[in-house]
Amino acid sequence: MTESAVGGPSLPQGRRLVTAIPGPGSLERLDRKKAYVADGVGTTLPVFVVAAGGGVIVDVDGNSLIDLGSGIAVVSVGNAAPAVARNVHAQVEAFTHTCFMVTPYDGYVDVCVALADVTPGDHSKKSALFNSGAEAVENAVKIARVATGRDAVAVFDHAYHGRTNLTMAMTAKNMPYKNGFGPFAGEVYRAPMSYPLRDGLTGEQAAARAIDVLEKQVGAGNLSCIVIEPIQGEGGFVVPAKGFLPALAAWAKDNGVVFIADEIQTGFCRTGDWFASDDEGVVPDLVTTAKGIAGGLPLAAVTGRAELMDSVHVGGLGGTYGGNPVACAAALGALEEMRGGSLDARAREIGAIMASRLGELAAVHDVVADIRGRGAMMAIELCKPGTTEPDPVRTAAVAAYCHQQGVVVLTCGTWGNVFRFLPPLSISDALLEEAFEVVAEAFASTR
Ligand SMILES: *Cc1c(COP(=O)(O)O)cnc(C)c1O
Predict the structure, then answer these.
(1) Which of 24, 36, 72, 183 suits 163 as a labelling partner, its CA being 20 to 30 A distant?
(2) In terms of domains, do 61 and 91 share one?
(3) Which residue has the least CA distance to atom 15 on ligand 1?
(4) Could you tell me if 326 and 375 lie in one domain?
(5) What is the Cα–Cα distance from 240 to 223, expressed in whole angstroms?
(6) Helices 82-94 and 325-340: crossing angle, nearest 10°?
(7) What is the distance in A from the centroid of ligand 1 to the CA of 133?
(8) What is the mean pLDDT of residues 285-305?
(9) Global pTM?
(10) Which residues line the pocket of ligand 1, CB cutoff 6 A?
């Protein structure tokens, strides 16, 4: 098989800075963006990309940056991964769209077969495919409401579920996701999350606290579903204490509440397991997936218990582009890369390297209040030394330094004081080590 000359894994794997970041070519294009793209669409690191693959992103000025973001946990298999590129090429030449709801095709069903196989639990499962994570979350709630005949939806502090109207209501953080965009969908209730750094509770205690809120403020009999990220994404990579998720899942089961794991950011090998729910053996009733599913093409899914999925009337689920054949071909390629490359194991190796580098950092810089995450989904939270008072200013300074030095890092968290590290699983150890050298330098050079 010939590999692409312009991107993908054949791209030289090194950090190379030939101009300031952003360089003149990017600056010129930024002016054009400013003139024609709505200001509401921001950019984290405004270099314009011409190629990407392995663990690097190459810009129009010839700079090669190390990628610790994977386009927000999307290109876990790498950018332009060989099996993804091959499948996409073949599919676009065969046909690009028929609409699965009009005339179906194999790729859609093949993806549903694969999802039944890889998602948690060995019960009988079905799936429906969509275009974005938010759309998958909306549909999971639709299914839970029809299946239970109940309206209320439970979500958690720091949750992120998307930017559509219902998912904005489910998302916790006001700026930038919700401010001014209301009124929001009703019947969404927020419970306290397990956040070990800030609450000091065991998983069981934190679950009891959340369940008490749901029982007293909503009523179990009114709840259609609990929607939870097994490790929170945008909200700060908050990893609940052990026991929290199993206790919530058990309570949901006892009360006829559909337990929905939003694995849009955590799914597909990212955390060192195929899904983050696997870590404690939690088997959700429904799982929402997107991001890592298709190597960069837009695809999302709701997968779950066949009887729950089938509670919706024919025609009640779908959309013009949902399960587009090119996106499905990409997903099958991405799954081939994950299986062939044992990317769950690779995520654990990457996680071990990151944990060790972050441990060194925390030992020297007391602004690092917490190291958390699993596999290739790790984070550090920055607080004023000796406190849990968030330090978003230092976080921004460190991020800016990394960007200028050619390392793509992302921040997150309710207070904007968390670094999240999400390298593609195709990154080499050497490149990863080099990126963390730069991160260490960034901490040493800022205050
Ligand atoms: C990104 C994300 C979403 C929304 O996905 P989009 O594809 O951006 O709509 C929902 N839930 C979680 C956990 C996410 O990380």
Answers:
(1) 36
(2) no
(3) 265
(4) no
(5) 22
(6) 160
(7) 4
(8) 98
(9) 0.97
(10) 132-134, 137, 160-162, 229, 233, 262, 264-265, 290-291
